[in-house]
Structure formats: C-alpha cells, structure tokens
Amino acid sequence: MRLAIAPIIVILMALTPLAAQPPAAAQSTGQDGQLLPGPFRVYAVNGSRAKHFHCFFCENDLNPTVAVIALAPPADAQDPLAVLMQKLDAFAAANKPAKVGVFAIFVTHEKEYLDELGRDAKVGAIEGLITNLKLQGPILLGLTLPDAQPVKQFGIVTKDDQINNIKKHQTTVLVYNKHKVEKRFTFTDDKKLDEAGIKEIFAAAEKMLPAAKK
After folding, report:
1. What is the pLDDT of residue 114?
2. Residue 159: burial class (beta carbons within 10 Å; 0-12, 13-18, 19+)
3. Which of 22, 26, 53, 115 is 20 to 30 A from 96, alpha carbon to alpha carbon?
4. Average pLDDT of the chain, as a whole number
5. What's the CA gap between 23 and 43, in Å, rounded?
6. Half-sphere exposure at residue 116, Cβ-oriented, CA atoms within 13 angstroms
C-alpha cells in the first residue's frame, strides 16, 4: 500500500491547474506606471565614479530622479537639450534635502568603450559641456552605444523605422521615483524638445517633491 502512494501524488500534481501559479510579470520598457527595466551601465564622465563604468539608476536607487537619454549631446548653449540640462542641474541643487537625482546619458559611442577609437574625443566633448554650460555637479553625465542591451530594454529607438513609421527617439526623459516611472517623455524629429516640453518635464518632476511643511 505504501508503494502505491507515490504514483497517486504524481497524478495529483499533474492535475493541479496552472492557473494557481502566479502570472509572470509583463516585461517593462520604462513606460508610464512601470518599474524601471533594470540597471543601465554607462561610462561615467563625471561624478563620484568618473572614468569608470557605472549605473546612474543604481546610484539614485529609490530617490526621485529625472533621467535623460539622448542620441546626441546639445549642439550649443541655446539648444533646448542644453537648457534642460542646466535647469535640471539647478533643480537638483535646490532640492538636496529631497535627494533629487538628475543625469543624462548620451548614446554616441559606435562600439563598446574600450573598442571605441574616438572615445577620448567623445568624453572630451561631454567634459566641455560641463564647462560651457557651467554645470555645477549634481547632474551626472555618461556615454553608451545604440546596441547596448539597456538601450533596448528601456525601449529607446535609435534608428528611424520607415516600415512602421516610427521616428528615432532623439531625447527620452524618465521622471521616476522609487523605481517607478511617473512620466515618460519622448522627443523625435516630428515632436522636438522645446520650451513647452521642458515645462511639462518640470511639472512632473515637481510632483515628486515632498509637500512643504506648514
């Protein structure tokens, strides 16, 4: 009789409905209301981990943060992206008690950092931005390449898709808190980053700040 118990248990396990198992979570690409897809390793140009590979998302952890992912650095100080970076730098400095994080990742490398022949020039260009835009330091800057896995995980389109009529994402901004994306902004050649877009970004960012004590 004891030997007959094992087959019965196997049969009962086989008949257990799959619906009783928890459903698999949908894969996040960092859209509104989703958790961050995962870490995003870049070559850090400045900050405490300057000249090293680092993840700005990991560094800011649960803090309210505004992340910028752009296919190219701003052309000059009048470029809306440059204006956004300056404003974010000042925003983080003004909200240190709230531990606000801000950073920008530029998808400018063609190969992995160590294989990138023009890496020194590209790093130098970003270092020049820090000086030219008079960035004070709260904003962190890093570099990556279009084929990097995190770029795909975060749903960044780096090339025009003519078949599906999808424009590449020139600039993507993630406003997130406690690993959850509160608001995602995507700017393309058809919908360019401008003053109105910058105002929307800061309206979303300000909502993450703790209420002022009366």
Report:
1. 81
2. exposed
3. 53
4. 88
5. 36
6. 18
- SS3 for 140? strand
Q: Of 108, 51, 53, which is closest to residue 81 (Cα–Cα)?
A: 108
CA-closest candidate to residue 54, choices 96, 128, 113, 111: 113
Average pLDDT over residues 137-158: 96
CB count in 10 Å sphere of residue 46? 18
Rounded Cα distance between 76 and 191, Å, is: 20
122-129: average pLDDT = 95
Q: In what order do the strands lie in the sheet with 171-177?
A: 53-55, 41-44, 139-144, 101-107, 65-70, 171-177, 180-187
Name every residue whose Cβ is closer than 8 Å to that of residue 99 and which is 6 or more positions away in sequence.
Answer: 63, 64
Q: What is the 3-state secondary structure of 8-57?
A: HHHHHHHHCCHHHCCCCCCCCCCCCCCECCCCCEEEECCCCCCCCEEEHH
Residue type, 159: K
Per DSSP, helices labelled H in the chain are 2-15, 56-60, 80-94, 119-132, 149-153, 195-206
Lowest mean pLDDT among 9-18, 66-75, 149-158, 189-198: 9-18
Can you tell me which residue has the tokens 């198992």?
21
- What is the gyration radius of the CA atoms in the chain, in angstroms? 22
In single-letter form, the type of residue at position 90 comes to A
